[in-house]
User: What shape does this take?
Amino acid sequence: MDRIDASDYHDIVHAEEPRVSPDDERVAFVRREPDDEESYGATIHVVPVGGDEPTQFTVSEGVDGQPRWSPDGDRLAFASTRGESDRQQLWILPTTGGEARRVTGVVGGIADLEWSPDGSRLLFTQQVAAEDRETRRDYAVDPDFDPEEPDPRVVDRMVYRAATEYFDGRRSHVYVLDVEAALEADDEVLHGEVGDLDEENDENDANDENDESDPVDPDDHPITRLTDGDEDYIAPTWGDDGTVYYASKTAEEDEHPDDSLTYELYEHDLESGEATAFTETTGWVDSLEATADGRVAFPYTPEENASMRQTEITVHDREDGTEVTPTEPLDRTVGHNCAFRLDPAGESLYFTTPDEGSRVLWTVPIDGSDDPARIYGEGVTIEDFSVGENAIAYVQSEWDHPGDVFLSTRGGNEVTRLTRVNDDYLSDRAVRQPEEIRFESDGTEIQGWVLTPPEFDADATDEEYPLVVEIHGGPHAQWTTAGTMWHEFQTLAAEGYVVFWCNPRGSTGYGEDHATAIERDWGEVTLTDVLAGVEAVCERDYVDEDEQYVTGGSFGGFMTAWTVAHTDRFEAAVSQRGVYDLTSFYGSTDAFKLVEGDFDTTPWEEPEFLWEQSPVAHVDEVDTPTLVLHSDRDYRTPANTAELFYIGLQKHGVDTRLVRYPREGHELSRSGEPGHVVDRLERIVRWFDGYSDYTEAPPALERDRNAGLSSAQEDDGGEE
Assistant: This one.
């Protein structure tokens, strides 16, 4: 059997976004895989529930996503970049055969796609600036249109960038597309100039000698914008055919909306065009679910110390104004990559939560008349799911595969695996099963896992292996035996390392008390738990306790830096996309509420305290050779704090190197350019190998920059 390798990432297929057809006979899903060093391809496939092979439904041009069945199952709507550079447009494909038709040419892309209950309209959002709305580029835009980069960039928002992009005045707005009108319209209507609603501007446009054709009347356009103004309107969903619900942040008179955790929920009547705010929630709203009879489900997180608290699902009844929280009896959070859906009848709520090293599926009556019941998910990670009339489809990963589409009954029984997208790849790869362990730390039971190299033989008592300790991000997240870390864990084991990871206090999946145990103390509490696990693992004869290494990303990067500043037990470390100075992080991230929630303070209130809680304050205590990896466009944990930590390491004579990844953001390890994902893994292994007695490799600092890496085949220019 071949060993798993970092470069195998190019061969791994990702199954995403499963959607059950209305007749429960088919499941549509997205198949995403690397195209080359810099990009991915994604196509929509459909698999019958009877067990036949999936069929590719969309052509391999661009990146497809958001597959959505029409209520009668005759059409499949999806978003795609085909024919565009990066701008996703809306396409509709007959499911009985025929070509897909592009039905939008908008400036802001397509998100939050959803059919109306009668199938006559499609709901979506796009990110647009005021100028886009004024010129109707949010209705139609020339495909060659390329907005100018602001020069200078003028900022008046508190949060003005996220992911890898600056907002530059763009806001999320809600739109409705008339499907039949769009399918019957010609290209001039869908992709041509749309007139301004202002009569004076219309008259000026009509008299413009440079106009080659009259602008399209927006009143006759298939697209209608439902929202306007300098706010973000998000998470739209249908109630009945004439009602749309959505959310928008609100704030007190002296408060900036970006500083608020309060959202107003709106009911938008399509016939009158009136929007009515009907309730508020706090926390982070990323989706809503609604029934035709006026019940709206939405996430709720208590505002006090919100970043540590559990997210519940609350249901508001528009008929009588009452609210219930059906998830409240459950001591688990519907947050951090979790989702919730209503069944087609609108009577049951389905949702996922982290749960002791798994991400599992629950159901509860929407009226809260019974407690939540766990129906599926032992030992698996459910990435996404869809609820049909009688079936549930989900993408799940397990220790032996990185993810496939599965189907079960609504009760979680009769589970069928519908796809095996990586069977060819896995057929000749040695995949090891992690061993679960439980250990005690400071009076708390902690769950962890140990993964051994492929050649490990429990009976060979004279064999020893070096140990790599992985620390997860968040901090309020959890690790499993699968998910996005599957390839990394298996790669490190294949390179000859025993790999250990755990869910220390602060993690989700073990109740709110476990998650809030690190309040005002990220470093010491987490390190106590991690080292307790390391001690337990090092009691095993096959682990060489003299050769230990540590790495982690995001909060795991924080903890890697904190660890090497507070113990010398590790031979080398790799700190990735970390937070190293809480004050600088607070002033440069889109997630400053994390500091306020977890530490209950701000830099102005307790500057000395936040400094002492920052790894960079203790950099003078670091002796461990430490590689620092970061992305140039990481606007969640901006690179300025990594630079400060790196300079501190250099000033104190520590073996170090800073590697910066252009074009990448905080999701580098999960969805970065394929070449960068591979390079990151190879650099981690090379850094550890250079300080290990189990290899003959010299330290990375004594080698050419790219020696032994896939990137060695590329241009070796540039400073690091």
Summary: Residues 432-690 form one domain. Confidence is low (pLDDT under 50) at residues 197-211, 716-720.
